[in-house]
């Protein structure tokens, strides 16, 4: 693997256990990619915290940018808030993309794409294209 920075991923869920599990699965496919999980509220309850998301984005960014995948609309709002905080939160908005792709499939294919050294927009594109992945094949 090259010493060049790779695109990082942030997995955001309302439940810490979901975020951790998805990140663990993606890391199994691409162990050299920085993948950060963030989920739940500081007290352990369900929810999302924009400050924690901003910290995760900073931790995932090695210089090539970050793709963020989220489970539900509220998580997306937390991500958008974290990005809007921008420099005040140590986040470089121009290097952050929020994926419309599915959480699990998007994280796995995004991690594999990032591991191959693809740039930010290509990693984002594969996470979003994961919406079309079929889980069953009927032999056609």
Number of helical stretches of at least 4 residues: 5
Number of strands: 4
Task: Return the string of H and E elements.
Answer: EHEHEHEHH
CATH topology: Rossmann fold
Oligomer: single chain
Structural class assignment: alpha/beta
Short synopsis of the structure:
This protein is α/β, with parallel strands linked by helices. It is 44% helix and 14% strand.
Describe the structure.
Helix 1 links the parallel strand 1 (8-13) and strand 2 (35-39). Helices cover 44% and strands 14% of the residues. With 140 residues, the protein is α/β, with parallel strands linked by helices. The mean pLDDT is 93. The chain has a 4-stranded parallel sheet with strand order 2-1-3-4, with helices on both faces.
Features:
four-stranded parallel sheet; about 140 residues; Rossmann fold
Write the layout of secondary structure elements.
Layout: E1 8-13, H1 16-29, E2 35-39, H2 50-60, E3 66-70, H3 73-85, E4 96-98, H4 103-115, H5 120-129
Helix pairs in contact: 1-4, 2-3, 4-5
